[in-house]
Amino acid sequence: VLRVEQRDGWRKLVLNRPDKLNAFNEALHQALRAALEDAATAADCRAVLLTGEGRGFCAGQDLGDRRPGEGPPPDLGNTLERFYNPLIRQIRSLPKPVVCAVNGVAAGAGANIAIACDIVLAAQSARFIQSFSKIALVPDSGGTWLLPRLIGEARARALMLTAEPLPASTAAEWGMIWKAVEDDRLTLEAENLAARLAAQSTAGLARIKRALDAGATQSLDAQLDTERDLQREAGAAPDYAEGVRAFLEKRAPRFG
Ligand code: LHQ
């Protein structure tokens, strides 16, 4: 259900249920959780690239997993509590950058998992669909928090209420993702980006993630204090000394 490929200093995680457009079942959730847990601590993993096998990125929850009407009504809150919420928290708090290469359609939770990643590239032919309203559900996986912050309330509301597909190029224009790239360049560009991030200071990038996450819910005043604290920590760390030394010696830094 998930293919993990170790590269030079980073890891590629490939959602691998292509006949279901990589929709999530329990096995995929468990495999992804384990892979991210491992990525968080592994020294040979300094960046993560998340993508999908086949023509889709991820179609959200596997709707065929349990047929409606069979047995008592499902507790979807419990599904979020057990699987989707921990996944979003895991991606946001991973002390390493997470790149997402959206290779095809990203629907439902699949769309919101994509935008929870740190840097999102998408193939020109990919589309994002907040498909929840079509089956009378609430957008989840952090979407109601993240999407309005990325593209503004008016656009987020319309996308969520209508479930209209959003082409990758519009997603990029609207600032929902970093870039839309030609389909046949997506893998190369995403892999180059992951490799570049892996060569940067991992601890330094982790502090940037922490700063941005804190800023999303804090006043400017509180955020200035957060920046001071994180910068104090950064300045005392060996990667800063190495970065400055490398700059002065006009060479590439070798971060720990
Ligand atoms: C699928 C799926 C799928 C199973 C395509 N499941 N098979 C959280 C908590 C708990 C429960 C509920 O949900 C959530 C969060 C959510 O994610 S809710 C939203 C769930 N996702 C959706 O509603 C999207 C459903 N899929 C679609 O609307 C379409 O498949 C899209 C627009 C993604 C792609 O359309 P097409 O390119 O036309 O492909 P297709 O529909 O023909 O799909 C290809 C195959 O994949 C097909 O199987 P088949 O055997 O006929 O070839 C689909 O049944 C299967 N598939 N999504 N979510």
From TrEMBL:
CDD domains (UniProt xref): crotonase-like (cd06558)
Classification via InterPro entries: ClpP/crotonase-like_dom_sf, Enoyl-CoA_hydra/iso, Enoyl-CoA_hydra_C, PaaB1
Enzyme Commission no: 5.3.3.18
Keyword Ion transport: no
Gene3D superfamilies hit by this protein: 2-enoyl-CoA Hydratase, Chain A, domain 1, Lyase 2-enoyl-coa Hydratase, Chain A, domain 2
SUPFAM superfamilies assigned to the protein according to its UniProt record, in alphabetical order: ClpP/crotonase
Keyword list, A-Z: Isomerase
Domain of life: Bacteria
GO molecular function, a single term: isomerase activity
Family label: Belongs to the enoyl-CoA hydratase/isomerase family.
NCBIfam families recorded: PaaB1
The name this protein goes by in its record: 2-(1,2-epoxy-1,2-dihydrophenyl)acetyl-CoA isomerase
Top-level taxonomy: Bacteria, Pseudomonadati, Pseudomonadota, Alphaproteobacteria, Acetobacterales
